[in-house]
Structures are given as structure tokens and as C-alpha cells.
Write a structure and sequence with these properties.
By secondary structure, the protein is α/β, with parallel strands linked by helices. It contains 10 helices and 26 strands. The protein has 2 domains: 269 residues, 3-Layer(aba) Sandwich (Rossmann fold); 115 residues. The chain is elongated. Bound molecules: 2-acetamido-2-deoxy-beta-D-glucopyranose (5 copies). Keywords: Hydrolase, Membrane, Transmembrane, Transmembrane helix.
Length: 523
């Protein structure tokens, strides 16, 4: 072989290699283009093995991705059998809603097209609750009082299943989660340890009552304001849609709504629980009486729409009223947020906030919490009170007491103020939990008047009598407030509870010239 022959040989080998490489490359291109147009059939990120889907009378919605134009049929096998009629993948997405399925399982759910299938196994039907908010919802079961006892119980609740969205934000509304933190799991001590304590305890207490599967979807992030969890539509209601002053990226308007709530809208849920508001004590505090109810309204509307009407338009929404915080400044920010959490009514449900329930938590302080006083470790009582609210409001149990005592009448005399409560009360002495506003003029409590303590003098089954002895004799009582402090009492030792001693009276403020209800009377 001479040199030219050799170089020709080399040249043709090189051409051959090139041609082969080009062929391989175009095959790869073709494959990847098929892949990017959908490829395999799959479920959206938050469907998975061990999941709980919403039971009857609602229909569970299932959706996912697939190759454009493919025909997808979903079949259910287990205690009941079902097969949906085929749907066509459009813009990469397929979606079906099942016929209502009774509580129970296990099921396998298979989505099948001509060329591929995706299957979920060990699926149960029950009630799905969404758990949202900031750090007190994020607070892990491993961090609470009696954590080891609680974690030891986890394995006894195989039908309470947990799922957690990852902490992600987005500037646009996403259709699927960016990432999943905890895929649906059968509870173990180690998975529950990392899961939201309030969410877990609520789910397990509800299971104790309902005795059917409960699905828990945790989507929350510490330190976040309500604005981050609200759509711009909801923020607009309160004039907050143009606000730009937020302290950190994850706190910006709508970024968590976009990434961590919007993707969930098409899943059918029973209801939601929420523990948030601490951040709004220092951020748009005065607007929280608007922004919080507006977010609830907007979630209800969009979850209803997203699920094709399956999630109730007024789905039950429970929340925790702020607990305590020992901060260095003294101001009324915590009492104001607690009040705003009820749309300035003091109790829920009320006409502005229907189908809601509230766990009062201001009597559960924790001075030595290693996570800071803002993170009290008793989440058992918080979740228990939420569960009472859910039983009454979400499940319609008529004989479940879930609200603490609230004033129905305020009677002022020369030397006393009598407060009549909506129910029998259990009262302990206090010199300063009640305060009265004394004014020289007949005007709402303001700069011309002052708050002074009003010691409890005596009480009847439904009444508390306060002394006005600390008011100047020439003044008139124009307002009364109760527990109006960041930290109003010691652990479970506030002055007013329900007769059973379980439900604390929520804080209130009532101004005789501004009160919407006609509750003020003169003796
Ligand atoms: C989503 O959150 C996870 C953890 O919560 C994080 O590791 C990941 O980087 C986030 N992804 C984006 C795109 O922000
Ligand atoms: C909300 O609270 C602020 C501040 O206390 C008050 O000025 C405003 O009137 C309240 N708005 C509503 C809708 O109740
Ligand atoms: C979710 O529901 C909304 C409202 O019906 C719809 O616009 C959206 O396309 C749905 N997303 C998916 C992925 O089905
Ligand atoms: C922790 O356990 C002790 C002993 O059983 C009990 O007295 C206490 O109430 C529990 N604490 C909470 C917050 O559940
Ligand atoms: C005020 O309350 C006290 C204690 O319950 C009761 O004895 C008294 O009769 C009440 N006064 C009026 C005028 O209702």
C-alpha cells in the first residue's frame, strides 16, 4: 500500500465515520423530538403510589402528560372497578375525572394509551386536606413536645398518607410542581418526623374520628407573608397588587401561589388548614383583614374551577389564630393580626368568612422553645382544636363545641361593666386581662382616651363583671378589650374558657361607637 492509497483509505474511513456519526446524530435528534413532544405517558408530579384521592360524593381528578394526540384511558382496579372513556392528549396534557368512589382501597390506577401506560399502586380514597402557611405549619413533628411518643404512633396510622411540595417560587403560574419534597408515603416514624406537625396531627385526629383514609398535602414555607400565597387577582381586592417593598425573593407577591398552590388546583380536595400571619405582623398588617379573607375566596374559586367543580366552591378552611411571641418591642401587632384573621369580627365562621373554623392558640405559649418563642412546641392542642372545628364545620357534627366564649352583650353601669357570653364560662381571677377605655367625651376610643385594667369582680354562669374603679369618675367607658397582648397569659391559664375548660375565649375588642353588632347597653 503506497502513501496515496493509504491516505485515501484513511480519508474514506473518516467519511464513513462521519456519515455514521451524522446518522446516529439524526436518529438521536428524532428520538429526542419524539421525547419532547410527550414521549411516555405520565401523571402530574403529585400523583403517586400510596396516594389518597378524594372520595365520593366528589370525583377525583387525575391528569398528566403524554404524546400529542394519544388517546388515554384511565382504569381503576380494587374494591370497585372503573374505566373512563378515552380522552385525547392536547397541548401535552390529558385529564379525566373518575366516577365518585367510596372511601377505601387499595386500588391501582392505570393510565393507558396505544403505546404506553403509567400506573399508581396502593391508592386509597378518603378525604384530602391541604396544609398551608409559614413556619408554624412547616414546624416538624420531630420538634414538638413529646415528639418521640408521637413518632412511635406513626406506624399505627397506615391510612393517613402524607405528601409535601418542595419549597419553590415562580414569577408565572405553573401547571405542575417544580419539585416534590416528599412523595406520597405510608407513614413511618422517620417520614412523619420531617412532616408538618400540625398537618400530621390534624390528619391523625380526623382519622380517629372518621375511620377512613386521609390524604395530607403540605405546601408551606417559613417566614412568608400572605401576599406570596395570593394570586394578583386576590391582591388587587386589597390594593396590594402593585406592592414592591417585600423584604426577600420568596416573599414577593404571588411567587408561592404560582409555584406551590396553582399547580395543585386541579386535584380534588376536601378542605384546607392554614397557619400563617406572623410575618404580616410587620408587613401590611393593616391590610390583613382584607388580604387573608381575599386569599381564601380566591383559593376557593380557583380550586373549584381547576377541579371542574369537584372541590366545593366554599370548601372548609380552618386556620390557627396566632399564638404568642415574646418580642422586644411592645406594640399591638399580634393582637391586631389575631383580630384581622377573623376579618375584625373576633370569631369564625362569620358573614365575611363562611365555612371557616379557627383554633385559638394564644394560651399555648412556650417561653423556652429552642426554636424561638414564636414557635411554641405544643402543636397537639392546636391540631386538636382545629379538628374540633373541622368536625363541626366541615363534617357537620351538630353537638361538637368548637368555639370559645364570645361576648353577646356589654352592659355598662356606674361602677361596673357586665359582659354576657354566648355560652357558659369557666373564669379565673384576673386583674388585667380585661381592659376598658375611659373617655371624657362620647367618641370612639382614641387619642383623647386611655386604656386601663378592669379587674374581674365576680362572675355568673355566663357573665363576667368588671370593675371600672381605675377609670376617672368623670369618664365614660367607651370600649372593652380582652387578652389584647402578644402574650396574654401563662400556659392554658387565660381567665376565660368554655365550661369544659378546653376552648379558650378568643381575644376581642369592642368599641361602643363602632361596634357593628348592637351589643352595648347602659344600666
Ligand atoms: C426547588 O426546591 C428544592 C428544595 O426545596 C431546591 O433544591 C430546588 O433548587 C428548587 N428548584 C428551583 C427551580 O427553585
Ligand atoms: C382593616 O383594618 C384597618 C386597620 O385597623 C382598618 O382601617 C380598616 O377599616 C379595616 N378594613 C376592613 C375591610 O375591615
Ligand atoms: C387545570 O384547570 C384549569 C382550570 O380549569 C385549566 O385551565 C388548566 O388547563 C388545568 N390544568 C391541567 C394541567 O389540567
Ligand atoms: C406530653 O406528655 C405528658 C405525659 O403524658 C402530658 O402530660 C403532656 O400533656 C403532653 N404534652 C403535650 C403537648 O401533648
Ligand atoms: C352583673 O353581673 C353580676 C355577676 O354576674 C351579677 O350579679 C349582676 O346582677 C349583673 N348586673 C346586672 C345589672 O345585670
Amino acid at each position: 500500500m503506497d502513501f496515496s492509497e493509504r491516505s485515501f483509505q484513511l480519508f474514506s474511513n473518516a467519511v464513513y465515520v462521519l456519515i455514521m456519526a451524522a446518522t446516529l446524530f439524526s436518529v438521536l435528534l428524532l428520538l429526542s423530538s419524539i421525547h419532547s413532544s410527550g414521549g411516555e405517558l405520565r401523571f402530574a408530579s403529585y400523583y403517586g403510589d400510596h396516594q389518597v384521592l378524594q372520595k365520593s360524593p366528589q370525583r377525583a381528578v387525575l391528569w398528566g402528560f403524554g404524546p400529542e394526540g394519544a388517546q388515554v384511558t384511565v382504569s381503576l382496579s380494587g374494591p370497585e372497578k372503573q374505566k373512563t372513556s378515552p380522552v385525547t392528549v392536547t397541548e401535552g396534557v390529558w385529564r379525566v375525572s373518575l366516577e365518585p368512589v367510596q372511601a377505601g382501597g387499595p386500588y391501582s390506577v392505570k393510565a393507558a394509551s396505544e403505546s404506553s401506560t403509567a400506573t399508581l399502586t396502593d391508592v386509597f380514597f378518603g378525604d384530602v386536606w391541604l396544609c398551608g402557611g409559614q413556619s408554624n405549619m412547616y414546624f416538624k413533628t420531630s420538634q414538638i413536645f413529646n415528639a418521640s411518643e408521637e413518632l412511635a404512633l406513626a406506624a399505627r396510622y397506615p391510612y393517613v398518607r402524607a405528601f409535601m411540595a418542595a419549597l419553590n417560587m415562580s414569577d408565572i403560574e405553573l401547571s405542575d410542581l417544580i419539585q416534590v419534597e416528599l412523595p406520597w408515603t405510608v407513614p413511618t416514624a422517620s417520614s412523619v418526623a420531617e412532616f408538618s406537625a400540625v398537618c400530621w396531627l390534624f390528619g391523625r385526629y380526623m382519622y380517629d374520628i372518621l375511620q377512613y383514609p386521609i390524604g395530607l398535602v403540605e405546601s408551606c414555607w417559613g417566614g412568608t407573608p400572605v401576599e406570596a400565597w395570593s394570586s394578583s387577582r386576590a391582591l388587587q381586592q386589597c390594593g396590594l397588587d402593585r406592592s414592591t417593598e417585600s423584604p426577600s425573593p420568596k416573599d414577593r407577591n404571588s411567587v408561592l401561589w404560582n409555584a406551590m398552590i396553582h399547580p395543585l388546583l386541579n386535584m380534588t380536595i376536601k378542605g384546607a388548614i392554614w397557619y400563617q400571619g406572623e410575618t404580616n405582623a410587620v408587613y401590611h398588617q393593616n391590610e390583613y383583614n382584607c388580604s387573608f379573607p381575599a386569599m381564601i375566596d380566591d383559593w376557593r374559586m380557583t380550586f373549584n374551577e381547576g377541579s371542574g367543580g369537584q372541590t366545593a366552591i366554599n370548601f372548609p378552611f380552618g386556620f390557627v389564630q396566632l399564638s404568642t411571641y415574646q418580642k422586644h418591642s411592645t406594640d399591638d401587632s399580634f393582637p391586631n393580626i389575631r383580630w384581622h384573621q377573623t376579618a375584625d369580627t373576633g370569631f369564625v365562621p362569620n358573614p365575611r368568612m363562611q365555612q371557616t373554623f379557627m383554633a385559638v392558640a394564644l394560651d399555648l405559649p412556650d417561653l423556652t422553645s429552642p426554636y424561638g418563642t414564636i414557635h411554641p412546641r405544643d402543636k397537639q392542642d392546636v391540631a386538636y382544636r382545629l379538628a374540633l372545628g373541622a368536625r363541626a364545620v366541615a363534617y357537620g357534627e351538630k353537638d361538637v363545641a368548637f368555639q370559645g366564649p364570645f361576648p353577646e352583650e356589654i352592659l355598662t353601669g356606674k361602677t361596673f361593666v357586665n359582659i354576657t357570653y354566648s355560652q357558659t364560662v369557666s373564669v379565673t381571677q384576673s386583674k388585667d386581662a380585661f381592659e376598658i377605655c375611659c373617655s371624657e367625651i362620647q367618641a370612639p376610643c382614641g387619642s383623647q382616651s386611655q386604656w386601663v385594667p378592669a379587674p374581674i369582680m365576680q362572675c355568673g354562669p355566663t357573665t363576667v363583671q368588671l370593675s371600672t374603679s381605675l377609670c376617672p369618675v368623670t369618664d365614660e367607658v367607651v370600649a372593652v378589650r380582652y387578652a389584647w397582648r402578644d402574650w396574654p397569659c401563662a400556659f392554658k391559664a387565660c381567665p376565660v374558657y368554655s365550661a369544659s375548660g378546653i376552648l379558650p375565649a378568643p381575644p376581642f375588642i369592642s368599641n361602643c361607637y363602632q361596634e357593628k353588632r348592637k351589643i352595648w347597653k347602659r344600666n
